[in-house]
UniProtKB/TrEMBL annotation:
It comes from Paenibacillus protaetiae. GO terms for molecular function: 8-oxo-7,8-dihydroguanine DNA N-glycosylase activity; class I DNA-(apurinic or apyrimidinic site) endonuclease activity; damaged DNA binding; double-stranded DNA binding; zinc ion binding. Residues 235-269 form the FPG-type domain. The lineage of its organism: Bacteria, Bacillati, Bacillota, Bacilli, Bacillales. It catalyses: Hydrolysis of DNA containing ring-opened 7-methylguanine residues, releasing 2,6-diamino-4-hydroxy-5-(N-methyl)formamidopyrimidine; 2'-deoxyribonucleotide-(2'-deoxyribose 5'-phosphate)-2'-deoxyribonucleotide-DNA = a 3'-end 2'-deoxyribonucleotide-(2,3-dehydro-2,3-deoxyribose 5'-phosphate)-DNA + a 5'-end 5'-phospho-2'-deoxyribonucleoside-DNA + H(+). This is Formamidopyrimidine-DNA glycosylase. Belongs to the FPG family. The keyword Ligase does not apply.
């Protein structure tokens, strides 16, 4: 599932391609991927200019010149591609937005969605999101406070979008590994030093992942060489049975709150 670094990569690439561009057409092949009828979707979008694209957690917000917003959540298996009909990937496309210089394809929106909302509706839809990891007000102390009432495992809380927005399975594992803490550690057992390391690791891991284009390897355009560059740099995620790059121990897959997690038993001791 795309997480903060993947969506931030998309945000940057989308702004490069479509900020200031006028929508010339739309096509919807799966009605459930949007929240209005395909006819209304087209009527409301054609002729509109996309001012810019914003990210909130794992969501992208397309700001339109009529005050409306397109809110995107890719969920599991979702991706985007910008290009021509000839360049588009051979995958099922649920929504297409057309521009004079290319088309934006929304792929794999079986669980995800692209909703047309008013500002008020958007704020209601995202009201329960926790703070962004890069919120300037979120220092180490306030970061720890987010988890103060939690009693479960660390990973379960890190991926809870109402606690902190944008982190999912991959980066939760990478962050706790960088902090030398296990993902199944119980929240009440963590001390102030642990939270400081987690806060630092969260920023360093996410910043590097953004700089490398995230871990998902589907290119955004035919010429895209950035997207997916972090995949080969993952230290533990999806590397069960491989050697830890830090100590040489074998990375293990465990289950934490019904989610898979990857740990180094030597670097992340119980």
């Amino acid at each position: 599932m795309p997480e903060l670094p993947e969506m931030e990569t998309y945000r940057k690439l989308l702004n490069e391609q479509i900020a200031g561009a006028v929508i010339t057409g739309t096509e919807v092949t799966r009605d459930k991927s949007i929240n209005v009828s395909p006819d209304e979707f087209q009527q409301m979008l054609v002729g509109r200019t996309i001012w810019y694209v914003e990210r909130r957690g794992k969501h992208l917000i397309f700001h339109l010149d009529n005050g409306k917003r397109l809110e995107l959540h890719l969920m599991l298996g979702g991706s985007m591609f910008f290009g021509s009909e000839e360049e588009k990937p051979d995958r099922t496309i649920q929504v297409t937005i057309r521009f004079e210089h290319g088309n934006l394809y929304f792929i794999g929106l079986r669980l995800g969605h692209l909703h047309l909302l008013s500002v008020k509706e958007l704020e209601g839809a995202l009201a329960k999101l926790g703070p962004d990891p890069f919120d300037k007000r979120l220092n180490a102390a306030k970061f720890a406070d987010l988890f103060a009432k939690k009693r479960g495992t660390l990973k379960a809380s890190l991926v809870d979008q109402q606690v902190l927005s944008g982190i999912g399975n991959c980066y939760a594992d990478e962050i706790v590994y960088a902090a030398s803490i296990r993902p199944d550690a119980k929240i009440p057992t963590l001390e102030s030093g642990d939270w400081e390391r987690l806060h630092t690791s969260m920023h360093s891991v996410l910043k590097e992942a953004i700089a490398r284009g995230g871990y998902m390897d589907q290119p955004f355009t035919a010429a895209d060489t950035l997207t997916g560059g972090y995949d080969e740099l993952c230290q533990v995620y999806d590397r069960a049975g491989e050697s830890c790059r830090r100590c040489g121990s074998t990375i293990e897959q465990i289950e934490v709150a019904s989610r898979k997690a990857f740990v180094c038993p030597s670097c992340q001791k119980e």
